[in-house]
UniProtKB/TrEMBL annotation:
Transmembrane regions listed in the UniProt entry: 180-204
Official protein name in the record: V-type proton ATPase subunit S1
InterPro entries the UniProt entry points to: Ac45_acc_su (IPR008388), VAS1/VOA1_TM (IPR046756), VAS1_LD (IPR046755)
Record-annotated V-type proton ATPase subunit S1 luminal domain positions: 34-159
PANTHER family linked to this entry: V-TYPE PROTON ATPASE SUBUNIT S1, VACUOLAR ATP SYNTHASE SUBUNIT S1
Family: Belongs to the vacuolar ATPase subunit S1 family.
Main location: membrane
Organism field: Mesocestoides corti
Subcellular localization: Membrane
Length: 225
């Protein structure tokens, strides 16, 4: 693995030889050893006519952690866009009394204007991080033209971490994914059909004369004129 150190708290990993990560660039922030941020890539989508897509390149980072129940991360990035040449991100994380933490606020500043990001995710245990392989595109609220950010392979852990090493993480997909829900629906449908068929079969009643072989056979005699 080849690392390019830009500051004491920031590393841009240029190439990775690990089997789980391909050869494209990805981003890793280590803030004071107690806050870690990873993203395979971050894209900016400008909904112009037509829409254009740019991959950002972080150049500077900052933040703090262990400050009571709050942690923060901010970083600047450049793009090759004339409309949006640079963007500054800021994230605030809060820990709660129930032993969980969550994203308190997220903002993006570009062209001298700060926009709130429509970014939400479920709370995670304080000793675990959060990850999302395929997060939906994040909209910069009230942006004109409409600007969205795509975080691919995101993983964040602002609490319960040491030396910038991730622990276990909760996933944005959760347990009940669309595939699992579809499988459960088909399973319950088949069980319903099977139960209905079984009840119908058990409800069939045969004639008593067939059940008892000693039963006197009823004979019908006919006469002809």
């Amino acid at each position: 693995m080849l690392l390019l150190s830009l500051t004491s708290d920031y590393f841009l990993i240029v190439k990775a030889e690990t089997p789980n990560v391909d050869s494209e660039n990805y981003i890793y922030f280590n803030v004071s050893g107690c806050l870690a941020f990873f993203a395979r890539r971050i894209d900016v989508i400008i909904a112009d006519n037509p829409s254009v897509n740019f991959t950002i390149k972080p150049v500077l980072t900052g933040g703090n952690c262990g400050n009571g129940n709050m942690s923060s991360l901010s970083f600047s990035a450049n793009t090759s866009s004339v409309v949006l040449p640079a963007v500054d991100f800021s994230f605030q994380f809060a820990s709660y009394q129930n032993g969980y933490w969550g994203l308190d606020s997220s903002k993006a500043m570009y062209n001298a204007t700060t926009y709130k990001l429509a970014m939400e995710w479920p709370q995670s245990p304080i000793s675990m991080g959060f990850k999302c392989s395929n997060m939906a595109q994040i909209v910069a609220l009230n942006s004109t033209p409409r600007v969205e950010f795509s975080f691919t392979g995101l993983q964040v852990q602002p609490f319960g971490i040491s030396d910038g090493i991730f622990t276990e993480a909760t996933d944005c997909i959760g347990f009940l994914s669309s595939e699992i829900l579809s499988s459960l629906l088909v399973t319950f449908l088949l069980l319903g059909i099977f139960t209905y068929g079984l009840v119908m079969v058990m409800g069939i009643q045969t004639n008593d004369s067939f059940d008892d072989p000693k039963h006197k056979v009823t004979q019908i005699f006919g006469t002809t004129d």
